[in-house]
Specification:
Shape: rod-shaped
Number of helices: 4
Mean pLDDT: 78
Number of strands: 11
Distance between the termini: 125 Å
Structural class: alpha+beta
Helix content: 10-25%
Number of domains: 2
Length: 243
């Protein structure tokens, strides 16, 4: 083997050693990345915006994979967790679904009935009443006889809202069309007696309005199957009480 051949063999060996070194370097980088990223897991990302208090379905989300260590402890990794749940706030498209974004949909309790009535959107709801809210229900009635004062009555206290429907323009043929330009169907969970009160007021009252109850007060006012705990003297109001 002459000197030129020896130089060729040496250069070939050096090339092989450099290639092995480069390969080892790539493996080291990959190993370092894997150690920092870790194993991947399933997560779910919203396809579109989801309105508050809207029931969630699997079609609202797309399945993605991402490093488990990058997910928060509240990230939803199984869509079975959304069954019977609703959105707490408006959910933005592209957001990762978190358990604290959703809550259980309100349901009936033993002894309760479900009733839905139309409420004046402007004076009765004003966009602040949502499923799970607790409200007092007021109705105003004309005097029974000529000369009798009109009355405002608190017919139910601590009514739990199950659902708030879509805004609907009031029908021109409605006997309340001159008072309400738009209405919203509100569904309540009530005792049998309170259900009768609401049905009566919805049929005969001039107005039915809702008053949102603060969360701290809701627990002490919750309507029982036997009716509301408010004192009877506090349930009816006429103008002559202020004289």
């Amino acid at each position: 083997m002459n000197s030129r051949q020896r130089r060729g063999v040496i250069l070939l060996l050096l090339s092989v050693l450099c290639a092995l070194g480069a390969f080892a370097g790539v493996l080291a980088v990959i190993s370092d990345v894997n150690s920092k990223v870790g194993p991947e897991t399933t997560a779910y990302r919203l396809k579109n915006d989801v309105e508050p208090y809207k029931p969630l379905t699997a079609g609202d989300f797309e399945k993605i994979s991402m490093p488990k260590r990058w997910l928060s402890s509240t990230a939803v990794t199984d869509l079975r967790q959304i069954e019977g749940k609703i959105a707490v706030n408006r959910l933005k498209a592209g957001s990762l679904l978190q358990a604290d974004m959703i809550v259980e949909r309100p349901e009936l309790q033993p002894g309760q009935q479900e009733i839905a009535i139309m409420i004046d959107a402007a004076t009765g709801v004003a966009g602040k009443i949502n499923p799970g809210s607790t409200v007092n229900i007021y109705a105003t009635f004309a005097g029974e006889k000529k000369g009798d004062p009109d009355q405002s009555r608190m017919i139910v206290t601590g009514a739990r809202v199950l659902d708030v429907g879509k805004l609907t323009r009031a029908s021109d043929s409605s006997d309340r069309g001159d008072r309400a330009t738009s209405t919203v169907p509100i569904t309540f969970a009530l005792s049998a007696l309170d259900t009768q009160r609401v049905a009566y007021a919805e049929s005969f009252a001039e107005h039915v309005r809702l008053a949102l109850v603060a969360p701290s007060a809701a627990g002490s006012q919750g309507g029982s199957p036997g009716g509301s705990p408010a004192d009877k003297g506090d349930r009816t109001y006429t103008l002559d009480k202020d004289k």
